[in-house]
Amino acid sequence: MPLYLKRKSVKKLLKKVLVANRGEIAVRIIRACREMGIRTVAVYSEADKNALHTTLADEAICVGPAISRKSYLNMKAILEAACLTGADSIHPGFGFLSENAKFAKICEEVGIKLIGPTANLIEMLGNKSQAKHTMKLAGVPVVPGSEGVLTSKEEATQLAEQMKYPVMLKASAGGGGKGIRVVHSKNELEKAYDLVKQEAKLSFNDDSIYLEKVIQNPRHVEIQILADEFGNCIHLGERDCTIQRHNQKIIEETPSLVIDERVREKMGQVAVKVAKEIGYTNAGTIEFLVDNDKNFYFMEMNTRIQVEHPITEMVTGIDLVKEQIKIASGERLEYKQKDIQMIGHSIEARINAETPEKNFRPCPGTITGLHLPGGNGIRIDTAIYSGYTVPPTYDAMIAKIIAHGRTRQEAIAKLKSAVAELVVEGIDTNVEFILDILNDASFVTNEYDTSFIEKRRKP
Ligand code: ADP
Ligand code: ADP
Ligand code: MG
């Protein structure tokens, strides 16, 4: 019997959570804790002294200067803050330390509960080429490609010739759409090989790369799962994240219009089966690419809460962050698969502080005036306020606007209305760009793939 089945239910809610993140996700986590009667500790950098997460938490500790490496990625300072404040747990959010196996391991060693899966699981799944191998062994269809990481340029060219161009070179430790390049010929591959390796080293401090066949005209469809520490696991349906710029999601929705009930069920079953097989715990997302013939291929697994989690919450009524905390507290899942029902349609738009006309260059600065929309079926996850200064140091995402309607058409109408009503003065945002997408005929009729944005930017 696996060990986790023998372990007794602890049934003691965590008492104090340190939130090792910033921005809207830190605020999202602090609010969930408050609702549950759990105390919170914020950590902040010198640039975030006046940030909303710093103000909202019960306690706040400065962990270093603006630069992430010295603050939000500073494991020692964050662990010291946890010890100093008596936090029994840490919620890592997304980005930063959320998929850092070393950090998870140290937390385990010092007896602080990291809200997420174990260090071993993060390690196993965080290495994307290794994760594919694990999934393949578990019988999950994976995107065809190299067995493990590439060891030489010659190996890459040989494999690409066998698989036929175009192929993709991808950083094994990659994330956030970085370290990915499509190549169409031997010539391109030879140049890209070194470039992607360099990029991977620079962004992820790990230059291992792998090769994948390019799936033509794909849709990105991912499955949300929840697994407790007693071997119970359910899925909460899918999210379609096909609208992307530079492999980074911009608009996400659920349900996906490209999969029918049969495929949905199959994807969900595969996700749950593999999660159980590897002994996965807490919230996780299994990302797939779906081709023209509705075949789906595993791409990667994210072992954390995702940016787009609210759309799943809107259609299922389940609070994923609270579920994460309950699971980490040693509680059993209170839902069975049959209890999960998706009602209506939900779409999220990521609002970024950036200038689309200047090649989406980030646009930090002080927000001199702000009006946030509201209304029936609108949710806004943000950490900005009037007078707040968006620092230049971090991710450009400043808000997520999420709409929920009975139908896709209604959800789009609500989202359009809300985005159009948003006023952020003092800095540039991608609001007009988002509205253009929501008004685009092929978006509305659901005839698009992951190249949607690239294609429509051409005259
Ligand atoms: P999701 O899969 O939840 O949509 P994203 O890929 O958008 O997540 O990443 C979530 C956030 O974390 C973004 O702000 C992104 O820039 C950042 N991020 C994700 N992975 C990494 C990474 N490996 N290194 C640095 N930042 C990352
Ligand atoms: P990240 O870790 O940065 O999220 P992913 O492996 O999830 O990287 O890929 C990000 C995006 O890149 C996908 O959503 C998809 O649009 C595109 N992509 C990745 N691999 C492939 C592939 N083999 N064929 C086509 N598109 C791909
Ligand atoms: Mg991904």
How do the strands and helices of this protein lay out in sequence?
Layout: H1 3-6, E1 16-19, H2 23-35, E2 39-45, H3 52-56, E3 59-64, H4 75-85, E4 89-91, H5 101-110, E5 113-114, H6 119-126, H7 128-137, H8 153-163, E6 167-171, E7 180-183, H9 186-204, E8 209-213, E9 219-227, E10 233-245, E11 248-254, H10 261-278, E12 282-290, E13 296-302, H11 309-316, H12 320-328, E14 345-352, E15 354-355, E16 361-362, E17 365-366, E18 369-371, E19 378-382, E20 389-390, E21 397-405, H13 408-421, E22 423-425, H14 431-439, H15 441-444, H16 452-457
Parallel strand pairs: 1-2, 1-4, 2-3, 4-5
Antiparallel strand pairs: 6-7, 6-8, 9-10, 9-12, 10-11, 11-14, 12-13, 14-21, 15-16, 17-20, 18-22, 19-21
Bound molecules: adenosine-5'-diphosphate (2 copies) and magnesium ion.
Count of DSSP-assigned helices: 16
Can you identify the CATH class of the largest domain? Answer: Alpha Beta
Tell me the radius of gyration.
Answer: 21 Å
Low-confidence stretches: none
- Could you give me the name of the CATH homologous superfamily of the largest domain? ATP-grasp fold, B domain
Number of strands: 22
Structural class: alpha+beta
> Could you say how many structural domains there are in total?
3
The biggest beta sheet is recorded as: 8 strands, antiparallel
| Global geometry | globular
Q: How much helicity do the residues have?
A: 25-40%
Bound molecules: adenosine-5'-diphosphate, magnesium ion
CATH topology of the largest domain: D-amino Acid Aminotransferase, Chain A, domain 1
User: Strand order within the widest sheet?
Assistant: 13-12-9-10-11-14-21-19
Supply the CATH architecture of the largest domain.
2-Layer Sandwich
Mean pLDDT: 96
Strand content: 25-35%
How far apart lie the N and C ends?
61 Å
